[in-house]
Amino acid sequence: MACSRWSLIITAVAAVGCSLFLSDASRAVGGPPGDWDSIPPQVQIIDQRTFNVLHTVPPPTEADGNAQFIPPGTTKESLAARPFHIYDKEFLDIIGPHPTLTLLAHTDSDPLFHEAPVWYPGKDEMFFVQNAGAKAAGTGLAKSAIIQKISLSAVTPAVASQRDARGSVKVEVVDSNPMVVNPNGAINYKGQLLFLGEGQGDKTAPAMYLMNPEAPYNTTVILDNFFGRQFNSLNDASINPRNGEIYFTDPTYGYVQDFRPPPGLPNQVWRFNEATGAVAIAADGFNMPNGITFSPDGSHVYVADTGMIQGFFGNNFTFPSTIYRFDVNEDGTLDNRRTFAYVTPGVPDGLHVDTKGNVYAGCGDGVQVYNPSGKLLGKIYVGSTSANFQFAGKGRMVVLAETELYYATLAAEGAFPGKLY
Ligand SMILES: *[C@@H]1O[C@H](CO)[C@@H](O)[C@H](O)[C@H]1NC(C)=O
Ligand SMILES: *[C@@H]1O[C@H](CO)[C@@H](O)[C@H](O)[C@H]1NC(C)=O
Questions:
Q1: Does residue 318's CB lie within 6 angstroms of at least one atom of ligand 2?
Q2: Is 50 left (phi over 0), alpha (psi -120 to 50) or beta?
Q3: CA distance 121 to 125
Q4: Does 61 contact ligand 2 (Cβ within 6 A)?
Q5: Domain 95-413 in CATH: superfamily?
Q6: Nearest ligand, CA of residue 308?
Q7: Distance between CA 209 and CA 221 in Å, rounded?
Q8: Nearest ligand to the CA atom of 194
Q9: 371 near 378, Cβ under 8 Å?
């Protein structure tokens, strides 16, 4: 970013220059309220140097991989009051001069806003699904998680300008037919919505369903086995923009969340060529492969590993909470697995990229944003787990946070949402 209006604003607040953006930012972080008047109302700087030395650092039994870290000089309330957290000046280009975050809906305990956010540009609607494995939802074995949608045209600028706009937007249930059983992931595919279902018990195999994005929401299963063997519990997918193949992850969450039998396949990443029918391994060596997304030019693929969360085995904080990056060869094979980012709190779950190649991850405190080198740029902070989120073209994003549904405006543009392939 050039020395612009932005750096002038920040300079006025934190007495910093363009090249030393965060110097003395600690004053801004904890500074007197008057200092904040010229910073956009929903933005704050988090200066990591203010907590490199804490003097008293709690043991792992207290500060574990799920613990929400409250930097000195902040509170949970102050972090939420200005939810766009700048860790690096590159984040300014992503959020733009006036980002907003709006609560659209809330439930007391039912995790209705969990996963599979997918934008249907035809009607400007965002679809998403309930948590299939959460006890509070009663889903999984007893009944399937549901698909829902909201109309984004209902989120007017007047709605988006509010922090709490509950009740402004109708959340509608989508009755897929035949039903997508325990959906967890979704992407745009050939004008349809492609859902990944985790399956149910040992009779209903995990499957990939194409769903008509308009009523009657009829579905067609396009894959439900590997040479006659059930997948474990299909989780998420992304299209390789160079060859159009569907790359998808298959961890064992259905089993460790009590609605699928013990797994019969390794935890791995697969690829599916719908035209030829070929299903093949893309990569293994994962604990719980989860979110997956290609870079905008298709040269890399990012895969999240949420191994830290082991369902009924509990959490194991020595297991991955990690995003890996591979090179994607011309023939679609994956090479050069590289450790891209390790996140806290929680795990990196849903992954998406913007048109510049920055990587967004749904994590334990909201959406964390990394540049293509794996540097943390900033966060859209919700103070609790966001398993996934999705761009709706340029400048708009829906953030799912289990019992909360948020809408964000920012400057960045999603790389793939709405791309039909
Ligand atoms: C939905 O039904 C229509 C009409 O029969 C059909 O053309 C279309 O392929 C179906 N879509 C899916 C995803 O099953
Ligand atoms: C975590 O996993 C390691 C390696 O398998 C194991 O030794 C350890 O006991 C596990 N910890 C917990 C808390 O389950």
A1: yes
A2: alpha
A3: 7
A4: no
A5: TolB, C-terminal domain (2.120.10.30)
A6: 2
A7: 4
A8: 1
A9: no
Phi then psi dihedrals of residue 136, to 5 deg? -65, -20
- Any residues with CB less than 8 A from the CB of 175 and at least 6 apart, and which? 217
- N- to C-terminal Cα distance for the chain? 33
Burial of 108 (0-12, 13-18, 19+ CB in 10 A): exposed
What number of CA atoms fall less than 13 Å from residue 94's CA on the CB side?
Answer: 31
**What is the pLDDT at residue 152?**
98
Q: Buried b vs exposed e over 178-205: b needs ≥16 C-beta within 10 Å?
A: ebbbbbbbbbbbeebbbbbbbbbeeebb
Distance CA(296)–CA(305), nearest Å, equals 21
- Which among 378, 372, 402 is positioned nearest to 388, based on CA atoms? 402
Q: What is the DSSP string of 166-232?
A: TTSS--EEE--BSPPPSEEEEEEETTEEEEEE--BTTTB--EEEEE-SSTT-BEEEEE--BTTBPPS
Whats the size of the chain, residue-wise?
421
Distance 294 CA to ligand 1 centre (A): 28
Shortest-distance ligand to the CA of residue 61? 2
Q: How many CB atoms lie within 10 A of CB 317?
A: 12
Order of all β-strands in the sheet with 236-239? 236-239, 246-250, 268-272, 279-283
Closest CA to 13 of 1, 29, 80, 2: 29
Q: 180 in ligand 1 pocket by Cβ < 6 Å?
A: no
Residue-range domain boundaries for the chain: 2-72, 95-413
Q: Using a 6 Å cutoff on CB, does residue 210 contact ligand 1?
A: yes
> In the prediction, which pLDDT does 6 show?
40
Strand, helix or coil at 327?
A: strand
Q: Measure the CA–CA gap between 144 and 368, rounded to whole angstroms.
A: 30
With H, G, I as helix, E, B as strand and everything else as coil, classify residue 391: strand
User: Ligand 2 pocket check: which of 313, 318, 319, 321 to mutate, most ligand atoms within 8 Å of Cβ?
Assistant: 318
Q: Which residues of the chain are modeled with pLDDT < 50?
A: 1-36
Check pocket membership of 161 for ligand 2, CB cut-off 6 A.
no
Answer yes or no: pTM beyond 0.90.
yes
Give the C-alpha distances (Å, rounded to integers) separating 111 from 115, 253, 398, 400: 10, 16, 16, 10
Regarding the beta carbon of 109 and ligand 2, being less than 6 Å apart is answered no
Question: From the alpha carbon of 192, which atom of ligand 1 is closest?
Answer: 13
Q: What local confidence, expressed as pLDDT, does residue 37 receive?
A: 56
Contact predicate 182/168, CB 8 Å: no
